[in-house]
Amino acid sequence: MLLGLTLSRRLLSRRHCLLQCRSIKTENTARSAVLDSVLSAFRSICGEDGVSLGEAVREQHGKDESVHRCCPPDVVLFPRCVEEVSSLAKICSRHRLPIIPFGTGTGLEGGVSAVEGGVCFSLRNMDQVLDLHQDDFDVTVEPGVTRKALNAYLRDTGLWFPVDPGADASLCGMAATSASGTNAVRYGTMRENVLNLEVVLADGSVVHTAGKGRRPRKTAAGYNLTNLFVGSEGTLGIITKTTLRLYGIPEATVSAVCSFPSVQAAVDSTVQILQSGVPIARIEFLDDVMIDACNRFSSLSYAVTPSLFLEFHGSEGSLQEQVNTAEDITESNGGSGFQWARDAETRERLWRARHDAWYASLALRPGCKAYSTDVCVPLSRLPQILVETKEDLIENRLTGPIVGHVGDGNFHCLMVVDPGDPEELHRVNLFVERLARRALAMDGTCTGEHGVGLGKRALLCEEMGPVAVQVMQRLKDAFDPRNLMNPGKILLPRES
Amino acid sequence: MSGRVLVGVKRVIDYAVKIRVKPDNTGVVTDGVKHSMNPFCEIAVEEAVKLKEKKFIKEVVAVSCGPQQAQETIRTALAMGADRGIHVEVTGKDYEAMGPLQVSKIMAALAKKEDAQLIILGKQAIDDDCNQTGQMTAALLDWPQGTFASEVSLEGDKVKVVREIDGGLETIRINTPAVLTADLRLNTPRYATLPNIMKAKKKKIAKVNPADLGLDMTSRLEVVRVDEPPQRLAGVKVETVEDLVSKLREQGTL
Fold first, then answer.
1. Residue B65: strand pairing partners
2. Cβ A171 vs Cβ A186: under 8 Å
3. Nearest Cβ partner for A249 among B16, B36, B191
4. Helix (H), strand (E) at residue A256
5. How far apart are CA A196 and CA A369, in angstroms?
6. Mutation to test the B interface, candidates A132, A150, A156, most B Cβ within 10 Å
7. Which among A113, A139, A279 has a CA at the least distance from the CA of A213?
8. By the 8 A CB rule, do A283 and A310 touch?
9. How far apart are CA A110 and CA B218, in angstroms?
């Protein structure tokens, strides 16, 4: 049984939950009194416009794109610079108010839910791209800069930031959740691409994790503070700047699609393509249920069997070689219908199925909501876990088309579920738990990309084991002894 | 036919920047603000390069008018595939007062000097939204014009242009030499990749003055004042429909 919020409770009447959260605020008279006394202090730091008590604003800042219920904070602040963030944090610390950093609200694990109320730091006004160094392939950005905004800024320089989690997320938010994406197989995740962070701790101190302004491509200096904060989901500090590693925009791109007789054949092809040294940029797996959904949604006519969607980046010459190698491999594994395209329009058409996957899944059962699982296992275990998972779905009459970043061994079951059917919600809940445990049993993780947030705290304990969790708790206590930084996330409350 | 195409590229404040008016209301803040190539000029460059890749034309020459920084914009055009650049140096008060009339005189003079077969411009610049330079250039040269082009095809010594107009699409066939202006849906401009940016550093940019071309840059326009759009006021909530109607009457809307 998952401790914390279960899927069924999450999807139950949103209004009921909203009322619950509202009454938390009014009942907590002690908290209300504290808030009233600090509001003027907040206003003196970030201005009248920088403090909002509006219901709509608080609701907007209490939810993300997950199925977790909205838990609005008591107040939303809009600081304009790191000095303001630091002063505001000091006030919150002095009055023991929880602090919840907010980027774009595009997370998938309830990371911005203010489960204990508190103060939301909305960082969207800090939206400058600072310090671009073209020759060094690095740039520093503030939390209000999203990945699409950065790439638009960089478009004349020949450089780009390739980590692409789908949503147009805040880059500092992506650092906070250790985001990944479809081209991690070639360009890595946030862990590999953050060179330095500026972080404000709960007591207001400002730390530069690799030293102020430093951006060497590699370092052996001291403890790796940068990667400690990457993935900390706002529980250790507020990220106010991130220095990112940039890459050259690919000279040319080729997209390809191929159908396979079985999941095993598709995964075998993936492994062999990687082993052959092809620097494949994206390799996405869609199962037959997903292909069927996409055919219906986008009026396509792909063969309804497991399929791979591939993308290659490189110079004109190298692309031809990459595509030929990949085609030979897929053929030798029983692949058929290998199509590829070079020009933007045809590539767009070939990849439509993959781009529309989320909406195609929702369209399978109009009126339902979708929840994405996120397990990740070593590549060699992928066929087994996919086969067992699909059997589980069929046996339990669940709708869960699968899309996977097979190059990383990571896949998502898009569980399409009727939020008004508690029995189905319960079945989905149990399925998700079984899936997570299946992945853990195969040396994997319960979350490859989305983070722990609210819903995976118990699974984290199973995955890490009590000793590692203890170490994490000690780190948390060292940074944030009063547990003010985004309480209720990543770590379960201590047994008292 | 010379097979040479002139493409005008303008350096403007980047489209993503929040524009601020100077405190003295004489213009907008440009110091320290990110600038880039006007998006419609990017589309014009892309079309010219595509024509060259399909071997309809032989050479693409990128032209920009302005101070030293205009060369950055030309370099971007070169990285996209233009062959060489011409920087027409205009600085100080002349640059501040430079508008479509001055630029069209420059383009006309260069077109004659370079024996251009086509001039392709963006339909308008995103800073002044004038949408005049292409039309004025054609008039000065007495050349036909295909403006708001969403499709261009060269057919021998004629050009077929599909134009986006209010009523839909209009297809015209005009003689060359001609002036074309690019609309949004003409193409999707390519990104400048690092290897191409490096190659572009070796391509030539010639520098000329309007005086060398025998041109007078005097403007007949004077900017009196620049203001921000009025701030949006907070809305007013009313309790009943009667209240709403009476409030609308009060402010003269009803």
1. B88
2. no
3. B191
4. strand A252-259
5. 38
6. A156
7. A139
8. yes
9. 62
**DSSP secondary structure, B98-142, as one string:** --HHHHHHHHHHHHHHHT-SEEEEES--TTT----HHHHHHHHHT
Per-residue exposure over B184-212, b if at least 16 CB sit within 10 Å of its own CB, e if not = eebbebbbbbbebbeebeebebeebebee
Contact A240, A200 (CB under 8 A): yes
Angle between helices A316-332 and A263-275 (to 10 degrees): 140
Chain A residues with beta carbon closer than 8 angstroms to that of B46: none
On average, the pLDDT of chain A sits at 91
Dist. CA A177–CA A175, nearest whole Å: 5
CA distance B173 to B158: 7
Give A129→chain B minimum CA distance, Å: 10
Give the strand order in the sheet containing B118-122: B168-175, B158-165, B145-155, B178-182, B118-122, B4-8, B59-66, B84-89, B205-208
Establish how many alpha carbons lie within 13 A of residue A397's alpha carbon, considering only the half-sphere containing its beta carbon: 5
Contacts of residue A263, Cβ cutoff 8 Å, sequence gap at least 6: A287, A306, A383, A386, A387, A390
Average the pLDDT over A460-464 and give the result. Answer: 96
Question: In DSSP terms, which residues pair with A310 in a beta bridge?
Answer: A256, A283
Q: Which amino acid is at A364?
A: L
Fill in the amino acid letter for A365: R
Q: How far is B128 from chain A (nearest CA, A)?
A: 21
pLDDT at A19 over 70: no
Q: Mark yes or no for CB contact A157/B197 under 8 Å.
A: yes
Average pLDDT over residues B214-232: 91
Q: Tokens 């009590």 appear where?
A: A466
* β B205-208/B84-89 pair status: parallel
Nearest residue in B to A134, CA atom:
B194
Show the tokens assigned to B155.
């057919």
Q: B21-45, pLDDT tens digit by residue?
A: 999 999 999 999 999 999 999 999 9
pLDDT in tens, A35-68: 888 999 999 999 999 999 999 999 999 999 888 8
pLDDT bin (cut points 50, 70, 90) of residue B2 is confident
Which tokens belong to A368?
A: 């339902």
Work out the end-to-end distance of chain B between its first and last CA atoms, rounded to an integer number of angstroms: 63
- Residue A371, both tokens: 């929840």
Q: What is the DSSP secondary structure assignment for residue A222, as one 8-state letter?
A: S
Q: Please, what is the average pLDDT of chain B?
A: 95
Assigned token pair, A313: 């980046």
Q: Note the maximum CA span of chain A.
A: 71
Interface membership of B37 toward A (CB under 8 Å): yes
pLDDT tens, A155-194?
A: 999 999 999 998 899 999 999 999 999 999 999 999 999 9
Cα of first residue to Cα of last residue in chain A, in angstroms, is 20
Give the pLDDT confidence score for residue A351 in this predicted structure: 84
Residue A360 has pLDDT above 80, yes or no: yes
| SS3 of residue B16 by DSSP | coil
- Nearest-Cα distance to chain A for B201, in Å, is 13
- Which chain A residues are within 8 Å of B197, Cβ to Cβ? 157-158
- Cis bond leading into B177, ω under 30°? yes
Helical spans, DSSP H, in B23-91: 39-53, 70-80
CB distance A62 to A120 below 8 Å: yes
